[in-house]
């Protein structure tokens, strides 16, 4: 233990690091005090609540895991007695409020609105000087300006053929020469300049690079060459996906200057098929968050209501699509990071099956849960995008062997709608009862979902109520597993290669500590600590291993559920888009309660608005069997057609 | 692209001298491990095949890089008596932990070359430098070689195995975690038999992992450090450190033995035999100088007679020894440690659990660090590499592809070829020598040969290789192994046959051997005939010489005829001398006796 607190006195460079100490850079003393149960544990800079609070929360979370496990055991015995699972399931609210003291909320609220720090781009940097000239600065928002725009909404979009065109229309028109790719890009860049001061969806935009890509496509067309599947489609990329042409920060100060050596596999595939990258979108630092407020470079706002969060962590991606400053966006989903922001912003997002899309080039948060997926205006668009990015990759051993999707996946739905009155006659739609009955769910949201269920029913689907009782434990298990993996994945940011060197360090360990203390945001620090703690000797059985068991339970629950139905329907988030700064810490963790089960089981899950015409639509989640990405897309497409969801752009 | 600023931290930081050559031209498609299926593409497979031959050849070359050793246990060195005296009172327990570099062409999780790099940070890529977003892609050959090593060590092979992350912060580990194996090693529960004593050393486990980068710490003050208020600037030993990632991600096999050895000699013998086995099976070149074989030893002693039951509680406090760069160093370091610990216990002191470095110059161990209980590496399953499923058929195929290992060879040499255990040991010490010997015997074994005859010939070949040839190699520093000389197995076989059929004498053979080792020779018979060195078997020629001698020494003839028959030897010697060593000795002997007695009647 003493190795954790005592500062190294001998500065023999050979003894820089103690291999024996579980020091995670800056967190050493904090972990130490927590392990020793010292109540006076200090926060990092008094900007954040005590670590112990978080850990107490996680202990309760863990106790909950145990509870569910015991309940699961009991259920086996009592299955014949037909007891309702909710009798045994712990109450959802019991742990969300455990840490949410008034003081805690007060402090986090003031912290979470640092408008003066609001930067949406990365300014000229010495290390990337040659990029500086290409980066377009749309003007730094002063705090007063931000306050003024707070109530305003994103400039309305009039009838606009280019901005309202779907991906297939753009590809077709660019191929036939009706529009040039340059025209499309110019229109989108113009829109981006209008919307960006209000929503701050982008961290980095490179207009010149976008125009260069468009020019290349137009040249190709003039030469008569065939264009790709997404030729001319303006796309935004979440900033945790590597792009050779643009810096990639993962929303962290530590990677502020990081210039990747290569494109992520999914980005490369999109570029090969002619997509035009407009810029990199903001996210919660390293994907850790559910509100896009934890970004080192500013807070993203929901285009549908600028006082609300866009969700996270792919908040920038969803916001850019919702504001029509990109037609499609690539996001990443670890515990709901595509689905929740897509739902909050009223757009469509897909978390594919784990392994459907290569993770090579995705800055890892929790490797066993991370997925890359598309966010778009319509199911049709994201299907096109998925068809491009899906498929095996020799660089990622966890990719599935088959591509599993092609562009032929959707057209027969059109036919089915014309020909059959009940195209879903053979489909059993499971409705996740616990999720729909959650007390936090607003009544209009519940109403919207029930109407959606009625729509499916009218199309011939048989509706089956399904119980997924393990889901509350799933959220706890998710935070333990994701944090554990993150504690290892983020260990490489040690100041040796990334981050700004801090003066005054006398040993390499101290250098690492200083760089990480400055470079990581509070949420990232907290999760690294939680993960380090959950994996530590003496605790690994109670936390990590138990969480793995819960993961298994969740997978089993899904397996059982899919014995009775083909798809599961649920809300995406218990509350919907909330106000900026309204939630933090454990409250924010609870946002993911409905999305993490599918993540733990690796299942494909599609989010689309149940009532697209509402100002703040309710997100609906369709979960399919493992590998059945096409199935959920087809179901979603059918709903979209029937509910008239295709005209999303008008609603914005 | 300079993705890393080469900024130097003036006081304590590390300098990245990376030239950051992301050369993806040579970026090979990485291979998944699939059971029972070769996922190598046709091109890759074709490229891999000659490689394995090349690897084997280079292994042989490197294998012969070290002079043959007769086994550390065989020699008694100075100070052995002191050890013996201590070992009468104390029982020493020695366990070994070995890191072996697997002889793959590319690194464990990326396509970078494992070969000697032209400069620092040249064999690197985003994967082995731990860039954000990169993922490991397991090299199939790593698994194959690890399984083969396990089979060669008689281990149980895990058909289902996985990788784990071992978390620790150290600047030489790019990801700050090492992809290793924790609770499901690829091989477990085997043994290795020591050639000298036949003792079986238990192999607890062998698992795959990756090597770390190499660090260089500056020792000279290129820049004066800034004054740090209140701190002594002299406390800095290094101004900066450099990291070379060429070695990062190179596949290693860690082999852990049970605490089965009892002396430095045994530990050294274990290391030698392990090196031999792994070189034979072309699993590693096992060069201690290059670091492709690294041996750490754990030593503890306890008073004899205290506990009849041998349990872990009964063992003394163990001390880990590092920096053992030769088998000789292993033996000396362990013996030094036994003496040191015994002296401490004799003086009523206690042994601290610590890690010590062997100092070759001072022939002593020095404290490196003191261990404070078990380290917490926070192992958890590596999510980026799915569990590996092997099929028994695949393992069996790999087992069948293993060559004959030294222990089997020694057994065959002594039982089938009638060699002495000593000769068998010397011949099998290096794969190159053994292969040369076997080729020679192959040339000598004609069909229908009497087995006893073959044994004689094999013995002759063994004597030549371990005797005159070895001595000649030792004299010449430029040719360090039998394979590097001009001598081929067929030439040696011809030489042996020429001696056997009496064409040349053994003496002549010894004379022409240096020439045969210098220059390639197509036919030894032509050579000796050209030089006129064939044996003279003409009776008349020999008889003339005998008569000549008899004429010059009438008094000895007289003495012989008077009964001093011992003088026949004198005549034979004189005649042989005149015959320039080319006379057939048996024929000469017969003719001398004949003439001495016949001429008696004829001339008088």
UniProtKB/TrEMBL annotation, chain A:
PROSITE patterns: AMIDASES (PS00571). It is found in: Mitochondrion. Pfam families: Amidase. The active site is at 238 (charge relay system), 313 (charge relay system), 337 (acyl-ester intermediate). It comes from the Eukaryota. GO terms for biological process: glutaminyl-tRNAGln biosynthesis via transamidation; mitochondrial translation. Keywords: ATP-binding, Ligase, Mitochondrion, Nucleotide-binding, Protein biosynthesis. It catalyses: L-glutamyl-tRNA(Gln) + L-glutamine + ATP + H2O = L-glutaminyl-tRNA(Gln) + L-glutamate + ADP + phosphate + H(+). Its EC number is 6.3.5.7. It is an enzyme of class 6 (ligase). Residues 184-633 form the Amidase domain. InterPro entries: Amidase, Amidase_CS, Amidase_dom, AS_sf, GatA. One of its GO terms (cellular component) is glutamyl-tRNA(Gln) amidotransferase complex. GO terms for molecular function: ATP binding; glutaminyl-tRNA synthase (glutamine-hydrolyzing) activity. Allows the formation of correctly charged Gln-tRNA(Gln) through the transamidation of misacylated Glu-tRNA(Gln) in the mitochondria. The reaction takes place in the presence of glutamine and ATP through an activated gamma-phospho-Glu-tRNA(Gln). Subunit of the heterotrimeric GatCAB amidotransferase (AdT) complex, composed of A, B and C subunits. Belongs to the amidase family. GatA subfamily. PANTHER family: GLUTAMYL-TRNA(GLN) AMIDOTRANSFERASE SUBUNIT A, MITOCHONDRIAL, TRANSAMIDASE. HAMAP family: GatA (MF_00120). This is Glutamyl-tRNA(Gln) amidotransferase subunit A, mitochondrial.
TrEMBL record, chain B:
It is found in: Mitochondrion. Its main location: mitochondrion. Keywords: ATP-binding, Ligase, Mitochondrion, Nucleotide-binding, Protein biosynthesis. GO terms for cellular component: glutamyl-tRNA(Gln) amidotransferase complex; mitochondrion. It comes from the Eukaryota. It is an enzyme of class 6 (ligase). Its EC number is 6.3.5.-. It holds the Pfam family GatB_N. The keyword Mitochondrion applies. Residues 435-596 form the Asn/Gln amidotransferase domain. The keyword Cell membrane does not apply. Residues 58-77, 214-236 are annotated as: Disordered. GO terms for biological process: glutaminyl-tRNAGln biosynthesis via transamidation; mitochondrial translation. It catalyses: L-glutamyl-tRNA(Gln) + L-glutamine + ATP + H2O = L-glutaminyl-tRNA(Gln) + L-glutamate + ADP + phosphate + H(+); L-aspartyl-tRNA(Asn) + L-glutamine + ATP + H2O = L-asparaginyl-tRNA(Asn) + L-glutamate + ADP + phosphate + 2 H(+). GO terms for molecular function: asparaginyl-tRNA synthase (glutamine-hydrolyzing) activity; ATP binding; glutaminyl-tRNA synthase (glutamine-hydrolyzing) activity. InterPro entries: Asn/Gln-tRNA_amidoTrfase_suB/E (IPR017959), Asn/Gln-tRNA_Trfase_suB/E_cat (IPR006075), Asn/Gln_amidotransferase (IPR018027), Asn/Gln_tRNA_amidoTrase-B-like (IPR003789), GatB (IPR004413), GatB_C_1 (IPR042114), GatB_Yqey_C_2 (IPR023168), Gln_synth/guanido_kin_cat_dom (IPR014746). SUPFAM superfamilies: GatB/YqeY motif, Glutamine synthetase/guanido kinase. Subunit of the heterotrimeric GatCAB amidotransferase (AdT) complex, composed of A, B and C subunits. Heterotrimer of A, B and C subunits. Belongs to the GatB/GatE family. GatB subfamily. Allows the formation of correctly charged Gln-tRNA(Gln) through the transamidation of misacylated Glu-tRNA(Gln) in the mitochondria. The reaction takes place in the presence of glutamine and ATP through an activated gamma-phospho-Glu-tRNA(Gln). Allows the formation of correctly charged Asn-tRNA(Asn) or Gln-tRNA(Gln) through the transamidation of misacylated Asp-tRNA(Asn) or Glu-tRNA(Gln) in organisms which lack either or both of asparaginyl-tRNA or glutaminyl-tRNA synthetases. The reaction takes place in the presence of glutamine and ATP through an activated phospho-Asp-tRNA(Asn) or phospho-Glu-tRNA(Gln). This is Glutamyl-tRNA(Gln) amidotransferase subunit B, mitochondrial. The lineage of its organism: Eukaryota, Rhodophyta, Bangiophyceae, Cyanidiales, Cyanidiaceae.
